[in-house]
Target: NAD-dependent protein deacylase
Amino acid sequence: MSTPSADMAAFKELLSSSKHVIAVAGAGLSAASGIPTFRGAGGMWRKYDAMSLATYIAFLSDPSRVWQFYHYRREKALAAQPNAAHIALAKFSIESIRKEIAPDATFTLITQNVDGLSTRALEAVQSALPAESSPPSQPQILEMHGRVLDVLCTSQTCGHRVTDPTSPICAALGGTEELVESGVIEPIVDKADLPRCSQCGDLARPDVVWFGELPHHIPEIDKLVDKATLCLVVGTSSMVYPAASYQKKVREQGGKVAVFNLERSQGDSEVDFLFLGPCEETIPQALG
Ligand code: BJW
Ligand code: ZN
Model:
């Protein structure tokens, strides 16, 4: 095992000659946009570990609490703007498609984040491009844990899905997010007043991927991981599977791995490059 390099010039050289690049992103990518992470500082919501709320069992046993958590996260996502790391990744993905990197290079962003900020960054970068320089096809962003503004009916016979950016998503949840820091008695929102399916009236849930559920785009992601020659790991603790397994897989098949994180993360001693620091600074340097 060798120590990972922090040589940015060497990384850029590798990037410029890499054919199939993937980036696997986590909550740290959006931290500078004001979206709380799951673990470490910011990983607590009220007195609860955010991780204990991200399961269907938690939702079934206390839909009021879990909806308040997601209402809080929806409001954060609605108020947030993409940061310099989102923008740099978006620009890089467009350049890859326009073949400025290498004639047959590919780049895909695989994000665990549900805030939609990577897609918004891509839309912002694309809309600033003159029409004649638009890429010939759409750059790929795979949001493997869903989107926090999407809502899913819990009735198995209905299963209606919709994107609902309404703020607040229902009247009863409005204002509950302000109690996050105050430590006052937790409000209980009656189940009947929680978001309901517009088609059948049953209880709706946030359409995100909780523990024990199958992430989205798995066959497509598996193919991309199989052929990746370089994997950028951005702002994730690399503790949640399957995303945590991709860096190891790429390295086992002879590819290179570069980690961009504020601090040390799982498995980062077995990578080729390690850039410690805020990714909103290191990613624009690395991809610029
Ligand atoms: C910065 C920064 C800055 C801060 N700059 N950095 C063993 C093997 C395989 C699987 C399992 C296993 N044991 C258990 C499992 C299953 C389970 C799992 O992984 N459990 C672990 C706890 C061990 N996984 C699942 O259940 C998944 N499904 C599954 O496996 O299905 C089976 C299957 C899959 C594939 C093929 C076949 C079968 C589903 C996982 C769903 C996770 N859902 C959540 C909630 C989503 C909705 C929501 O957002 O609310 O996803 S939980 C949470 O964790 C969220 C995140 O996307 C995910 C990862 O967290 P992330 O992004 O890494 O955040 P943090 O907070 O942990 O880290 C932030 C990092 O940023 C830190 O390192 C900071 O230092 C850094 N940082 N600021 C750079 N400015
Ligand atoms: Zn329904």
About this structure: The pocket of BJW (ligand 1) is lined by residues 26-28, 31-32, 37-40, 43, 54, 112, 114, 145, 208-215, 218, 235-237, 239-242, 261-263, 265, 278-280 (CB under 6 Å). Residues 257 and 271 are 5 Å apart (CA to CA).
